[in-house]
Design brief:
The structure is a single chain. The protein has 2 domains: 2-167 and 338-353, Rossmann fold, CATH 3.40.50; 179-326, Glycogen Phosphorylase B (Rossmann fold). 48% of the residues are buried. 46% of the residues lie in helices and 15% in strands. With 354 residues, it is an alpha/beta fold. It contains 16 helices and 13 strands. Strands 3-2-1-4-5-6-7 form a 7-stranded parallel sheet, with helices on both faces. Strands 10-9-8-11-12-13 form a 6-stranded parallel sheet, with helices on both faces. Helix 1 packs across helix 7 and helix 1 (10-23) packs across helix 16.
Length: 354
């Protein structure tokens, strides 16, 4: 079987690592990197640390407005598919690379495989939500990380080709956690003590593109009594500068460049709490057994909230501060994302249906 895989952003590199490792044991994979994340700290380091095979194609698309970026990726992926003629195209998650790859394949009548299908925040203002819904509705095979994702698809009338295999990001986290413990020196470099700092990530458009929300978040975090480690996404850094908010990033903030996967795991597992608007970091917080405070009004990872390990605060400063000071999860930590062998289950199902 010949599978063309499209990746373009940090979370997709992480998901691709365990899947490619298993898929390539018996099948051919053509890896297409769109270049959506092109910064070395957001791209190259993940391929190196996770031992992801070098991309067969790097489209070099870069950043841009949603329509322009999606259209450029679609055009370039189509060229690759016409040249390679794969049996199927594999996409992950909910980025513009995901949707563009899926559209290119669907228009060429190449079956689409969607890993991390069925996620819904039910907020159509999020570009990611549009990407998820459209990708799911043009996919031939949909591999879901949770039971909730399966139910979401059922409610939209998608019942064929749906499989619950767990979350491949958990595979990657388990595989690399011990390696991170052995190799990462990030805590020593930053002078941090275990359980004595907060790890924060901010990149979601609903927060970064709204000056009032971004200012509210930064002002709240500036009042936290513990150090706040902030690996700053290049786009977020640019917006903070443009909005004149850089002066807020002083005092307790430890602003650093985006870090590689092993350093990120080390920062996550040793943090006191995680404060984020990222979908992937919400999951990684759960994998690490660290309380998560999500600065969004809704989440696609509702299971983490239901079991009490994640709390939604929106961008309301008082709620963020209260959660930082008082939020404590229960002792129970159920295995809601599978057993860490999702990649094997995915390939096994794929071999049966293809």
């Amino acid at each position: 079987m010949k599978i063309a895989t499209v990746v373009g952003a940090r979370p997709q590199f992480i998901k691709a690592a365990p899947v490619s490792r298993v898929l390539r044991q018996n099948h051919e994979e053509i890896l297409i990197h769109t270049g959506q994340h092109y910064d070395a700290n957001m791209s190259d380091v993940f391929f190196e640390e996770l031992h992801i095979p070098k991309p067969d194609y790097n489209l070099g698309i870069g950043s841009g407005h949603h329509g322009a970026q999606t259209g450029a990726i679609l055009e370039k992926v189509e060229e690759v598919l016409l040249s390679e003629n794969p049996d199927a195209l594999l996409v992950y998650g909910d980025t513009n690379s995901t949707l563009a790859g899926a559209l290119a394949a669907a228009k060429l009548h190449i079956p689409v495989i969607h890993i991390e299908a069925g996620l819904r925040s039910f907020n159509r203002r999020m570009p990611e939500e549009i990407n998820r819904v459209l990708t799911d509705h043009i996919s031939e095979w949909l591999f879901c990380p949770t039971d909730t994702a399966v139910r979401n698809l059922l409610q939209e009338g998608i019942t064929q080709g749906v499989y619950q295999v767990g979350d491949v990001m958990y595979d990657a986290f388990r595989f690399n956690q011990e390696l991170a413990h052995q190799k990462s020196k990030i805590l020593e470099t930053l002078g941090l003590k275990t359980q004595d700092y907060i790890l924060c990530t901010i990149h979601r458009a609903e927060n970064t593109d709204d000056p009032s929300r971004l200012q509210e978040i930064l002002k709240a975090l500036a009042k936290v009594q513990k150090p706040v480690v902030l690996p700053l996404h290049p786009r977020t850094r640019k917006i903070i500068g443009e909005q004149g908010l850089s002066e807020l990033l002083t005092g307790n903030f430890h602003v650093i460049e985006p870090v590689g996967y092993l350093d990120m795991i080390a920062l996550e597992v040793n943090a006191w709490k995680l404060v984020t608007d990222s979908g992937g970091v919400q999951k990684e917080a759960y994998f690490a057994g660290v309380p998560c405070i999500t600065m969004r009004d809704e989440t696609e990872w509702v299971e983490t909230v239901k079991v009490g390990w994640n709390v939604l605060t929106g961008a309301v400063g008082e709620r963020i501060l209260e959660a930082v000071e008082t939020f404590t999860p229960p002792l129970e930590h159920p295995p809601i994302f599978g057993d860490g062998h999702s990649a094997e289950q995915f390939v096994s199902y794929l071999e049966k249906v293809k």
